[in-house]
Structures are given as C-alpha cells and as structure tokens.
Design brief:
Elements (H helix, E strand, L loop, with lengths): L7 E6 L5 E10 L9 H12 L7 E13 L2 E4 L9 E12 H13 L3 E7 H9 L2 H6 L1 E6 L4 E7 L2 E8 L3 H11 L4 H11 L12 E4 L8 E4 H25 L10 E4 L8 H9 L3 E3 L18 H13 L23 H4 L6
Parallel strand pairs: 1-6, 7-12, 12-13
Antiparallel strand pairs: 2-5, 3-4, 3-5, 7-8, 8-9, 10-11
Helix pairs in contact: 3-9, 5-6, 5-7, 7-8
The protein binds adenosine-5'-triphosphate and magnesium ion (MG).
Length: 347
C-alpha cells in the first residue's frame, strides 16, 4: 500500500519463552583524568552481560537501567562524569533459541532480510506508555493471539519481563469447542459479540451462533457467550498476577495496568483485569503520530508501530523522543529514552 519496495524487516518477537533478570557489571575507569568515556560505558555493558545462561536460551536484549559512579547511584547517563569505579545495572531479557531461530527462518524464506529484532512488548512500551506511568510504576500486558507478554516498569526502569503461553486463540478455541462451531466461525463470533465481563452485558441480549453443515443457526444469550470468554481471560490475568506475587512485584504497579495487543479489543476486558489485579486499568493503543492512519491506532498494532519507531530512532530516520530531557528526580541526570536503554542488544 505504501508503494515502498521492502527487502529488510525489523521483527517484533513475542512469546519466545521470554524470561528476564536484573544484574550488574563493574569496571574501573582508567582514562585520563578519570573521565568516563563512551568506551568505559561499552566496557561496563560487556561486563554486565557476561552472565551464564542455559544452552537453549539466548539473550534478546540487554537494557541498561541506571549507572553508579563510585558511590553516586541512579545516574542515567554517566558520560563525561569523573570517577574511579563505574557500575551499570541492566535488565536482561532472554528467549528460547529455537523459537527465535524458527522466526528468523520464516522471514528469510519469505525473501526478506532480518535487519533487527525487538521483543514486541518493548515496541508496545515505546508507543503506549506515558512517561508518568513508567516513572510511577506500571504493568504493561500485551494480550496477543498465542501468548500474553508482560513487562513491569518502575522509576522509569524495566524491572521484569515475562510471558504466559495463552491469548486470544485459546478464547476462540474455547468458543469453538463449547458451541461446537468451526474455529473461524468462533473467531468471528468472538470479535463481533464477545466480551470479558458478564455483569456489563445485558441479560436479554442475544447473538446468533452460525450454523454449518446440516446445523441451523441458533439464538444464544450473549451472556452465555461471555461465560465462555470471561473465565479464560481471568485465567490469563491470574497467571500474570501469580508471576507478580511470586516475585514480590505487586507493590510496584502504582500507576496500574495498561492492556494492549489484539485481545485488548475485547469489550470490558479492563473490568476483568481490574477484578484480578485490584488496580486501575486502561487500554493502550499507539499514540498519535503523523502519517499513522487512524486504522492503525488500535491496540492490535501497538507492538508493530512501536518497533517501527524504535527502529527509526536506531537508524536515525527520526529523532529520539522517548522521554523528557529534564528529568532530575532522585538526582538522575541526562535524558532518558527507551532507545537509549535498548541500544545494546545482540541482534
Ligand atoms: N475485536 C476483537 N475482539 C476480540 N479479540 C480480537 C479482536 N481483534 C483481534 N482479536 C484477537 O487478538 C488476537 C491477536 O492479537 P495480536 O495481533 O496482538 O497477536 P499477535 O501479536 O499476532 O500474536 P502473539 O503476540 O500471540 O504472538 C487474536 O486472538 C484475535 O482473535
Ligand atoms: Mg503480539
């Protein structure tokens, strides 16, 4: 549609058995006058990523969180500061080697070159979250088709990234089985009449379950359809919530939950999420951008729009705009942007 001949692509990966951990690296500042250089920063990143991970996993992203120069903590950008010891805390995201390789293979066989790849949820974070949400602490959930990815931010830093292997396809599968209709009919019914919160649906409202083969179409209370959808959505959120509780992260999400991804289009999914997480919930979609057709300002396009932005920033096609340059909270210095975080990655 754009008329552009596309040869290389930037991938928005999802699921890939994503796991994360936080660690740090340390180096001595050796240059003249003990002034921290770009090389020192590169060295401390190297030191931080020198961790052993199991053979079947690979590092997808190494995101610098903040730096410590000698005893001064919480520094955003240590370049040109003076010190003896430079430390960097990083958020490392890993994925399964085979999942990532299969995705690369698919794209290559389709005749494209993989230019860069990003975990899709980083794209979502780039275009959906506000600076205040990231700062105060929030849980971003990308409810997709086969997986639900999620990420926690606190004090503008990524804290935890993970995924659960369930999403909209499971909801469609449940509808198909429970109503004995083909998957494509179940998918249509879900999109046209599904909802994730039964109390919000009029008890008198009915929907038509399409017939197929010798079976006639039948009328069904919409609430019955919702009673199939809601438990699965609750189950997905409960899995995410359990992961939060287990890791002691629940208190961090002061700004609440932001839902995005195609399944965030399910009506009343925010109410369902609120009942599980007990915090405010909003639906997030790509921010207004010049040139972005209104059709793509839907939660289903968050990852793709965000990844396009991150890649445009990486290649210098557009200027970085991820965050304020004036942020000084807790003595942090310099600007902040998501791009700055994920400059060091392995792909
Ligand atoms: N209007 C809608 N109502 C309910 N569900 C919808 C709607 N539109 C799309 N979906 C669901 O969203 C899901 C796809 O979401 P999305 O495009 O975010 O997934 P994906 O990124 O391709 O997959 P994944 O993240 O799992 O790899 C499908 O299950 C689809 O049924
Ligand atoms: Mg997705």
């Amino acid at each position: 549609m754009s008329g552009v001949d596309i040869r290389a692509v930037s991938l928005a990966l999802s699921g890939a058995n994503v796991e994360s951990f936080n660690t740090n690296g340390q180096v001595a500042v050796t240059g003249r006058g003990r002034e921290i250089t770009q090389e020192d920063i590169a060295r401390v990143h190297e030191a931080a990523r020198a961790v052993s991970i199991s053979m079947d996993r690979e590092i997808l992203h190494v995101i610098p969180r903040s730096y410590t120069v000698d005893d001064q903590k919480g520094i955003r950008n240590p370049l040109h500061m003076t010190g003896v010891r430079l430390e960097c805390g990083v958020h490392i995201i890993t994925g399964s080697v085979s999942t990532v390789q299969n995705m690369f293979k698919c794209v290559t066989r389709a005749g494209y070159r993989v230019e860069q790849s990003y975990l899709g949820i980083l794209g979502c974070a780039r275009t959906v979250l506000t600076e205040d949400e990231r700062d105060l602490g929030c849980l971003l959930i990308d409810v997709g088709g086969g997986t639900t990815d999620f990420m926690i931010f606190s004090e503008s830093e990524p804290v935890f990234t993970s995924a659960v292997p369930a999403g909209g396809s499971q909801i469609t599968g449940d509808i198909s089985i429970m109503l004995s209709i083909p998957v494509d009919a179940a998918e249509r019914l879900k999109k046209e009449s599904g909802a994730a919160w039964s109390d919000a649906v009029d008890p008198d409202e009915t929907v038509i379950v399409p017939g197929f083969g010798a079976r006639e179409p039948v009328e069904l209370e919409r609430r019955k359809l919702v009673s199939i959808v809601q438990p699965r959505v609750e189950e997905i959120f409960e899995m995410v919530n359990e992961r939060l509780m287990k890791n002691g992260l629940k208190d961090l999400i002061k700004a609440g939950v932001v839902l995005t991804g195609g399944s965030a289009l399910l009506p009343h999914i925010d109410e369902c999420a609120r009942s599980i997480f007990g915090v405010p919930v909003r639906i997030g979609a790509p921010a207004a951008l010049s040139g972005l057709d209104v059709e793509y300002r839907s939660p289903a396009f968050s990852a793709v729009v965000g990844v396009a932005l991150l890649e445009a920033e990486r290649t210098g096609a557009i200027a970085e705009s991820g965050g304020s340059r004036k942020k000084t909270r807790k003595g942090r210095q310099g600007g902040f942007s998501l791009m700055q975080w994920i400059k060091d990655r392995f792909f």
